[in-house]
């Protein structure tokens, strides 16, 4: 005679011992993050983008410092060279974060990702977090390398102080992380690399240049890169301080994140 199994008291559903993982959501958010980390490095584009960012940083900062030395510009913080290079280097982060999303839509593997992580907000947040962490580490690395290269190029026409230099390094890393979140949101909204890159290039580069050319400095300062430039550079005459600047960039990143999540929930795979 078969004796029926006795449910474990106080558990829901029966036969589930407290503390065991839920089979419906293996790994939870940590598992989703681990999966996104693995997928990010399974393609070559992120590595190529980071290598390009390092090369661009070195070339641009040495050029910036050399021009300042040749033209005998006033002495400035050495970190300003690395902060100025962000205008170009940020697009390597844009490519990295965009590919992390659009590559799955291009290959159709996004269906498997959504089946393994049914909670749409979870997979969306996991991709944004992984891209932001990689972008922060990359941004701080670019800043350190850029400052070191620029110090040689300045040849005495730059100042160095540990506190301000560290602040600039962390500020550049934080800005790049917010750009990664912004790019992830746009990529989820467009689902196509060309469309995402076109929107981000317009927002981060073309539109600010047009506004500055037309005398719209105030509007340009409210765009992500305008605010980021004030946040990363040590400017005694900036229109606003570093806290409002980073809040402006964070607001743009949050808006893009919410739009991308809305599209993901409405259109799914």
Automatic annotation (TrEMBL):
Enumerate the residue ranges of region (Disordered). 1-25
Does Ligase show up as a keyword for this record?
A: no
What keywords are annotated for this sequence in UniProt?
Answer: Membrane, Transmembrane, Transmembrane helix
Transmembrane ranges, per UniProt, are 47-65, 85-107, 128-154, 166-189, 196-220, 240-264
Protein name in UniProt: ABC transporter
Native source organism of the sequence = Embleya hyalina
